[in-house]
């Protein structure tokens, strides 16, 4: 086992980012909307808690992409085909997570190939990296031919997929189909690294939203009439007003828009009107903390 | 403020459970499949981490209901209408969570009413409980007429909904439409209590699945050929074989079926074949612990 740990780490070049190269959405177009397809029986039967979709939601928000929908479906070909086709039709950026391992329940690559009427084909560069990676693992080196075939299923991609290597130290690439749909593994740490690595390859929007959170201990019904008026008033400016009660701990009001100065200005008004205070924007999942 | 804490707690009777009463799915029918519709911009923009769907997934599994799909959508009437209609058509038990508060972005009751072509109507019993509840809260008692209207939106339900009071100390009921679709609040603690309270009102399946988890430190590709054979062999017995890798920490194999003795028997074989050990079935989200 010792040789594997003593050898220098394997690295492979990333796929070059086209400087002004082809945009998969078409010249000048940017990603506006997104959807996530989480594939896995283990999420639906409660064995595993999905964390990838929340990570993706934050990722989209920070980049100015509007995440419109998250769906969790079973390891089922018909379900994957239907959802993949519909999402690619409706949104600019679609990701799938899960179902790309070597076992019988890993059917994502094959199902996506079917969804877009493509045969499956081994990707030579992925095979090369996979094999180099395996050469460092004694527990993989002596596999039987059947085990090798199972392993190489992880390099069997839809024929027309773009194969994008986004990390020098990760042999798994991101496959992109139709310029939109990107296939990711389900393992959270790997998902997160690959998603972060994919960013330079995406035609991102030019602007990013700013979020302002105000907490009040008033009951939600007491601030509702003001918020309704505010919501109507801010519609023309495309500022979104949200209201999120915490059980017996008051309400967090959220303002989201692109013009930070304007959001801060409205924020001051909201603080006065709801007798609230500005709270931490990075810890918005639980009880709010003052900034 | 002191009178509110000194008064005895308010309680109201639960809706009686019909002993052999009408089954909303029809005589003798049981719930087999389920779907969850999570409604809320705050999930999609990453502000809030949805925990309700995982709670629901575990709930379904424990009761022998197959959860087929989870969807997270925006506070958007068209999206709610489309998803609610489709889910009611496709599954036996559908829940929604979120969007039932007093503010402008709480549109679930109205959207569901629209989905099933019903007007909205104030529910008298809910109004009574809501008002009694409010009488204990000095911060609500002196509300303006506009604030009262906002509050009473929480009792404005689709006209043909069954209004089921599932907890003596919670004024919020569960509204059920089409015998299938149950509307829940998004606040996790409230969601969990109401879901638990709803159980006696559901036509539950007669059998529950048994899950057995085996952990191995072998690479997933090494056990793949055996698992594929096992999966094919167990298909006629309706035993499902799953395989879930943990990054650099081996693989958890899952066996799910109704016959516990048979699952344990197969489990012993799997332990031998994958050089594994049985792991804790209640802590299946992270690194497995031996039983």
Automatic annotation (TrEMBL), chains A, B:
Renumbered residue ranges of the record's region Disordered: 1-27
Superkingdom assignment: Eukaryota
Family annotation (SMART domains): MoCF_biosynth (SM00852)
Ranges of residues in domain MoaB/Mog: 35-205
InterPro entries xref list: FLAD1_M, MoaB/Mog-like_dom_sf, MoaB/Mog_dom
SUPFAM superfamilies: Molybdenum cofactor biosynthesis proteins
Molecular function as annotated in GO: FAD diphosphatase activity
Pfam families: FLAD1_M (PF24102), MoCF_biosynth (PF00994)
One of the GO BP terms on file: flavin-containing compound metabolic process
PANTHER family for this protein: MOLYBDOPTERIN BINDING DOMAIN PROTEIN (AFU_ORTHOLOGUE AFUA_5G11210) (PTHR47675:SF1)
Protein name, as recorded: MoaB/Mog domain-containing protein
